[in-house]
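Saturday, quiet lab. Running sequence design on the structure tokens for the scaffold JK sent over.
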């Protein structure tokens, strides 16, 4: 049940973002983290170009009530979780080069 809710939240968030974004940046839902009781959900997104990440997450968090209404029309759950949109630190972070110790 929990995994189905996480998948449904990820799918609904992707559809909502596709519908509501202005398409100046590409926003992708990377993962959803649901607390143990199912009352809070953190939706992580990656944004391209990266410089638009802050603006995109601000926009999505301002649209939370609209997203909640969208969820109500799509999901049949007892209680909707409180949603927060966050930038995915793994996808948006910098990648450090790996030191190799090859013998030549």
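Result came back. Writing it out in full:
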């Amino acid at each position: 049940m929990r995994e189905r809710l996480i998948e449904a939240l990820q799918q609904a968030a992707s559809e909502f973002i596709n519908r509501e974004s202005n398409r100046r940046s590409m926003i992708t839902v990377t993962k959803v983290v649901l607390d143990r009781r199912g009352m809070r959900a953190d939706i992580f997104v990656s944004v391209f170009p990266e410089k638009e990440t802050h603006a995109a997450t601000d926009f999505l968090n301002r649209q939370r009530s609209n997203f909640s209404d969208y969820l109500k029309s799509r999901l049949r759950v007892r209680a909707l979780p409180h949603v927060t949109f966050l930038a995915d630190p793994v996808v948006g972070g910098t990648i450090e080069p790996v030191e190799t110790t090859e013998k030549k």
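Notes for JK: The first helix runs from residue 2 to 20. The domain at 2-89 is CATH 3.30.300.20 (GMP Synthetase; Chain A, domain 3). Ask whether to fix the surface positions before the next round.
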